[in-house]
Amino acid sequence: MAKLTELFSLEGRVAIITGGDGRLGIEHAKALSAAGAKVYSFDTTRSDELAKVGTHIDVDITKPEEIIRAVAQVVSEASHIDILINNAVIDPPLPKEGEAGWEDYTEFPKAQWEKEIAVGLSGAQYTIQAVAPQMKKQKKGSIINITSTSGITAPNHSKYPEGRFKSAAYPTVKTALLGLTRAWASYFSAVGTPDVRVNAVAFGAVNFKEITPELLEKLKGRNMLGRPARPDEYHGAIVFLASDASAFMTAQTLVMDAGQTAW
User: Does position 210 have pLDDT exceeding 90, yes or no?
Assistant: First the structure.
């Protein structure tokens, strides 16, 4: 029986994170790197913070040819891919008073809808397609789709100023990722590589110190702990799903939301 520390170790493993240069992506990179993994970020923006724990590769994940090129680069440099985290998403912040955004659903822009679907859902599909041949060859791997409480329950628009509505595309993407998770897990089982595991993790709100005092007060009553998560509180869940500690888990959704969706 392996020691518990060995079960959670990612020493020598190679990980790809889409949107790894974003705020939450950087947190995932910190967690994987601390557990021993070599981390690559597929992103169109670059962060100095990510550079401390991972390698940035310019990739527009709405373009399959760019993903294929980047995956080939990772395999060339590292020889294998053990972990994929589909983290990239478009989630615009609540606009300030007088700014446009968060429109009434009847007026939600077609271009915004298509952009959010392209990045959050199609980008995840294209990236899995690109890494799947390598993981099938290895007969092992862990794919983690980052979803949300918005994939389980409806947006609560009462938290926001009158006339502002959380994007309809955001919960649509997060819900669809649950289906994508189950579909790919079933696929890998059917083609004889069941140890290429696919799971999702549903997170609640995260306080990156940018939440307005008014919204923070409303969020206090949204879960049983009475607060949003700190950015580093999801590290353990990420390492668990990426490591052998979750070796008997696939096609599942780990919910980490301080009890929000239990009410």
Answer: no
Q: Which pLDDT tens digit goes with each residue over 126-173? A: 999 999 999 999 999 999 999 999 999 999 998 899 999 999 999 999
User: CA angle at residue 117 from 27 to 203, to 5 degrees?
Assistant: 35
Rounded CA separation 125/128 (Å):
5
The phi, psi pair for 205, rounded to 5°, reads -65, 150
CA distance 54 to 17: 10
Average pLDDT value for residue range 54-60 = 98
Is the distance from CB of 199 to CB of 249 less than 8 angstroms? yes
Give the pLDDT band of residue 34 (cuts 50, 70, 90).
Answer: very high
Distance CA 85, CA 16 (A): 6
Task: Name the H helices within 9-166.
Answer: 23-34, 48-51, 64-78, 110-117, 123-138
The pTM of this model reads 0.96
Q: Across-strand partners of 56? A: 41
Question: Is it the case that residue 193 has pLDDT exceeding 80?
Answer: yes
Domains defined for the chain, CATH in brackets: 4-257 (3.40.50.720)
The b/e string for 4-42 (b: 16+ C-beta within 10 A; e otherwise) is eeeebbbeebbbbbbbbbbebbbbbbbbbbebebbbbbb
On the question of pLDDT at 2 being above 80, the answer is no
Pairing of strands 196-203, 253-256: parallel
Question: Which residue in 96, 83, 97, 105 sits closest to 31, CA to CA?
Answer: 83
Say if CB 76 and CB 134 are below 8 A apart: no
